[in-house]
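ARCHIVE RECORD
Type: protein–small molecule complex
Small molecule: arabino-flavin-adenine dinucleotide
Source of inputs: curated submission
Record status: active
Notes field left blank by submitter.
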Amino acid sequence: MKTEVLIIGGGPSGLLLSQLLNRAGVATVVLERTSRERVLARIRAGVLEAGTVGLLREAGVAARLDKEGLPHDGCYLSDDELMVHINFYELTGKRVMVYGQTEVTADLYKAQDEMGTSIIHEVEDVVIQDLDQKTSFVEYTVHGERKRIDCSYVVGCDGFHGVSRNTIPVEARTEFERVYPFGWLGILSRTPPANEELIYANSSHGFALCSMRNENLSRYYLQVPLSDSVDQWSDERFWAELKRRVPSETAESLVTGASIEKSIAPLRSFVSEPLRWGNLFLVGDATHIVPPTGAKGLNLAVSDVYYLHQALITAVKQDQRAPLDGYSEQALARIWKAMRFSWQMTTMLHQFDGEDSFSAQMRKASLSHLARSETARRDLAENYVGLPF
Ligand code: FAS
Ligand code: PHB
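STRUCTURE (tokenized, with ligand):
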């Protein structure tokens, strides 16, 4: 079998890349390790940057998003009883869209089915070969049979635990990492959201986030020690702790209910450079991870796809490789700015084990400065809605 672009990973970045390339007449094959059902069972990101919404519209997969998505003009940051509103639209002229990553992925799968693209599920033992040749190939096993696909380019959209990043020789990679000493315990509940916009809450008891998926589906997170496990957190314990961390007015009006999903995610900042090795290009979580405090993970994967899809179309359709040669540097310039913002939001809003009273004061001063400075709020807003591609 032969194709132009072989995409490893059928998550949001792999599917979006396949959608954009096929719309431009570039043939692809997507190899996905799990079943479609398991990909769609994942509860992950909830906020889409303005640029992400624009690219989904360009890809022809935004009809349901435009109908069901919740446009948000701003969000709140709280510090115990202090509530600071960041009005994105007033400060930047842009807004974000609240629409779950699960829905984005489902919309992409539907569009890919309608286009009749090739997506092969439940593949195992993927091996990438001949990246330094004109034609590369990928071997994999599906239903017990070993297969091979020859291709011009391979794109690793296979997430943090995928195979593509490690195909680049370790001596050719430079990796940067910060592992945070806490995780996020997230729940989903069929209850009305605590607030009309998101609340990122710093408190003397730790961080909490009040988010949502729609008017009757809410998403909440609590900062918890990495040693915690989900079964230590009953719904009752979760709601009681959430109420301690959000402003009392929010706590009093909070509607609680049974959790329909509960999980703990570790937090890390990670970048692996470069994003290219011969005919292999890396995208999304395969090459970078951000703590979810800045709502950047999915959006950063999309910006990689924005740059790479244009470069691949130019290479395949016009036989010009200059944009591909510039992909890694171009994508990394935006990746590092999102890394900085996500790290800044995480350090500003979380208590760190063993921190001294000075660090706690610095967090309070940052939030107090945001409350009084439009310039500080504009800086946060510009990063949150998404810097230009
Ligand atoms: P993904 O990990 O989504 O997709 C990679 C795909 O590749 C998967 O389907 C996997 O099965 C497949 N794969 C892996 N190895 C393979 C192999 N060898 N062969 C074939 N296929 C392979 N971001 C936010 O913005 N906000 C959040 O709140 C948020 N919460 C998160 C919670 C969790 C638990 C996790 C893990 C991530 C969260 N993220 C969040 C980040 C997340 O949304 C990612 O940024 C986003 O999924 C990135 O998309 P992809 O790069 O496509 O990677
Ligand atoms: C979510 O709704 O899952 C969400 C929203 C904003 C974040 C992180 C997660 O920063």
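CURATOR ANNOTATION: The radius of gyration is 21 Å.
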